[in-house]
Write a structure and sequence with these properties.
The protein has about 280 residues and is of the alpha/beta class. The protein is built from eight helices and seven strands; from the N terminus they run H-E-H-E-H-E-H-E-H-E-H-E-H-H-E. Helix 2 runs parallel beside helix 3.
């Protein structure tokens, strides 16, 4: 950016095509709103075509523009490749990829009184599925869309990690009254593994394509309030200096910064936005 360029212009996404996996989810829709508000064209990719189109329609209604809902199974290299071809055929460009899709297994009791989320009981099929969506999907999308951006000489990959990719989950906040340490519900292992893996993928990609004009960074958001149980919210917010969870809209400006020219010299960074939780 030259010294005479305006800061506001650096955030402009006019005409830029941004692929967002998990686009129909709570944060995926917010990422798309940020893109659309700044003039970009978000592609909201989801395994559920109906949800993807409904989410895209809500973005178009709120911000105008040309948000697109798209069906794709990001666990499939073929499906991701077909999606890339469709986007390039329509727009002739892909400017950014936001790897947002992830499973988030709920902390709950299993059948027969056994908590399936506990490490000792964690099912292999759930492990495989969570890794397939959260890590394999991010790998395939980065490979396919990143290669297209590298060929064009310009692009950004933003991986949505988590504060739990930086720190271990405090399992005490999931313990309900009357539960013992050895019998309580816990945050599933796959969430931490996937989010830490995304940070590793970010650093790998940051050093792989910079000569082709492709940057890679990660956002590590803290917990988002979405109607969780009052007791859980209180236990979690006791660990956060700001004493509250995030509103989902509070990540939109950070996403806009990280995929725009405003962050043109940022590469390989992990930005934690968590109310201060990871500094305690």
């Amino acid at each position: 950016m030259s010294r005479t360029a305006r800061v506001r212009d650096a955030f402009d996404l006019d005409g830029r095509v941004v692929v967002i996996t998990g686009g129909a989810g709570l944060l995926g829709v917010r990422h798309a709103e940020a893109v659309a508000e700044l003039g970009g064209i978000p592609w909201l990719v989801d395994i559920d075509a109906g949800r993807a189109e409904a989410a895209a329609a809500s973005v178009r209604k709120a911000f105008g523009g040309a948000a697109v809902g798209a069906l794709a199974d990001i666990r499939s290299a073929e499906a991701v490749g077909l999606l890339r071809d469709e986007i390039l055929a329509r727009h002739g460009r892909i400017d950014a990829l936001i790897n947002n899709a992830a499973n988030n297994p709920k902390v709950e009791a299993g059948t027969g009184g056994e908590h399936w989320s506990r490490f000792e009981n964690f099912p292999l099929d759930v492990w495989n599925e969570d890794i397939a969506v959260g890590l394999t999907g991010a790998f395939l999308c980065s490979q396919v869309f990143g290669t297209a951006m590298a060929a064009a000489g310009r692009g950004v990959i933003l991986n949505i990690a988590s504060d739990l990719g930086l720190i271990a989950p405090d399992q005490r906040i999931y313990r309900e009254p009357g539960e013992s340490v050895d019998g309580q519900r816990v945050k599933p292992v796959t969430y931490s593994v996937v989010k830490a893996g995304l940070i590793g993928l970010t650093r790998y990609l940051a050093t792989y394509w910079p000569h082709r004009g492709v940057r890679a960074n990660a956002l590590a958001p803290g917990g988002v309030f979405a109607g969780q149980d009052e007791g859980f919210v209180q236990r979690l917010t006791n660990l956060i200096p700001m004493e509250r969870m995030a509103d989902p809209d509070e990540y939109k400006a950070a996403v806009a910064f990280m995929i725009s020219d405003a962050s043109s010299y940022m590469n390989g960074a992990v930005i934690s936005i968590d109310g201060g939780r990871t500094v305690w």
